[in-house]
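Hi Prof. W.,

I finally got the NADH-quinone oxidoreductase subunit K 1 prediction working! I wasn't sure whether to trim anything, so I left the full sequence exactly as given:
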Amino acid sequence: MMNAVPISWFLTLSAILFALGVAGFLFRRNIITVFMSIELMLNAVNLSFVTFSYQHKEVAGHLFTFFVMVVAAAEAAVGLAIILTVFKNRSTLNIDDVNSMKN
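And this is what came out:
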């Protein structure tokens, strides 16, 4: 019978995913890439919540992850609508070119 995967592996994966999300958020100039980086950070935090919830044999982490996913889905819908509107008005997705709300 196989042994279970250690908790530290999940937390390490979560830290790596979060670091990649932060790097993408800080160093990329495309709005879509920045948006995906934010979602990656949210999913890394969700992985940590589920890992700690599993370790402590409680359901709270799973429930909190569910609520984070619901909020992230709503944020994705609104965020993508805003991104589409910005692209329609400016014809670019570069953050440096979209620096104000004025036309």
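The domain at 29-90 is CATH 1.10.287.3510 (Helix Hairpins). Does that look reasonable to you?

Thanks,
D.
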